[in-house]
Amino acid sequence: MPTLPLAFHPGGMFDPFLLLLTALVLDACLGEMPLLFRHVPHPVVVIGRAIAWLERRLNRPQRSDAARRARGVLVLVALVAAAVAVGAAVQAVAAWLPYGWVVELFLLVTLVAQRSLYDHVAAVARGLEQGGLAGGREAVAMIVGRDPHSLDSHGVSRAAVESCAENFSDGIVAPVFWYVLFGLPGMLAYKTVNTLDSMIGHRSERYRAFGWASARFDDLLNLVPARLSGLLIAVVAPLAGGRPGRALVCMLRDARRHRSPNAGWPEAAMAGALGLKLAGPRVYPGHTVDDPWIGAGRAEAGAADIRRALRVMAAACGLQAVLVALLWLTLGR
User: Fold this and answer.
1) Which of 91, 209, 281, 330 has the fewest C-beta atoms lying within 10 Å of its C-beta?
2) CB atoms within 10 A of CB 220
3) Is residue 7 in a domain?
4) How far apart are CA 333 and CA 13, in angstroms?
């Protein structure tokens, strides 16, 4: 992947770090821009359509596991290469055409999910407060894969908090991390791999072999961002009435209890920050996961805890923006 230039784009207006900082501010203000994406497809939707098209043609059930795994590797390599090529092309346009940086800025705003995550998690708290358990279940079904009908109000609240923590890493910190290292090609490559993992990186009979490479590569790309996310959450823990030390201890002690090599880090930090127990046994359509609990607090979470988690997430997003600003001031022109 091409390295990120640390200067103003020739012929353009923005240093890459300033461009990223601007995108973070705009995303926090504008969110998903639904009116716009009624008329043009969202970049992640385009990626998802490509994945679905390739999966239908290459992941035939009559093929052996070895053949399906090989085809899954081919899909991963092809789509990541395409993402890098598109990112490099857009970055070249942004570098040389007057106001070409607007195209790159638009993609950055759409590929970072601060406001979107906040709104979806807040909808769960609002659903519980206004519609009771039924309202909470309906809202949480939009952001988690588990069976919402198996959840009581505490389970709905824990699911929302867990989704807030995990997606803070996957949807916010990781894209920014890979942009800082490799520019738009890095961010697009990460979003492609993350979308592959969410669509085909499952352990079901259909996807176990075909999605194996995508799931493992997603784990690799999230190793550093997940741990960085946990640190950011721990630092801002006082905004939820917690202590950074308690959040760090919980993260270091409990993160490896999670079945994911990465999701446990932000979730454990959030559990410590809020004084909760997260994860634990969960029911998904067709199967039950009997995982250990993460955190030493209470399991009886409520809508107020969801709102505390949102305060932590928003503050962690702010802290990340400050770090990007520092990069701009120290490494930019």
Assistant:
1) 330
2) 12
3) no
4) 11
pLDDT in tens, 126-177: 999 999 999 999 999 999 888 888 899 999 999 999 999 999 999 999 999 9
pTM: 0.92
What's the CA gap between 164 and 169, in Å, rounded? 9
- Residue 301's closest CA among 181, 140, 176, 147? 140
Distance, in Å, from the CA atom of 256 to the CA atom of 241, rounded to the nearest integer, reads 25
**Angle 186-91-223 from CA coordinates, rounded to 5°:** 10
Residue ranges making up the domain that contains 154: 16-331
How big is the chain by its Cα radius of gyration, in Å? Answer: 20
Contact 85, 186 (CB under 8 A): no
259 near 242, Cβ under 8 Å?
A: no
In the block, residue with structure tokens 């070249």? 92
In whole angstroms, what is the distance from residue 165 CA to residue 5 CA?
Answer: 31
Residues in contact with 266: Cβ distance below 8 Å, sequence separation at least 6, in sequence order: 165, 166, 168, 169, 226, 229, 230, 233
The answer to whether position 40 is within a domain reads yes
pLDDT for 58-72, tens place per residue?
A: 999 899 999 999 999
Is residue 3 in some structural domain? no
Query: What are 147's two structure tokens?
Result: 């069976």
Is 8 a domain residue? no
278: burial class by Cβ within 10 Å (0-12, 13-18, 19+)? Answer: buried
Sign of CA dihedral 114, 116, 122, 128: negative
Number of domains in the chain: 1
> What is the H or E stretch that residue 155 is in?
helix 153-168
Query: Between the CA of residue 160 and those of 30, 120, 145, 154, 297, what are the distances in Å?
Result: 22, 9, 11, 10, 17
> What CA–CA distance (Å, rounded) separates 258 from 291?
7
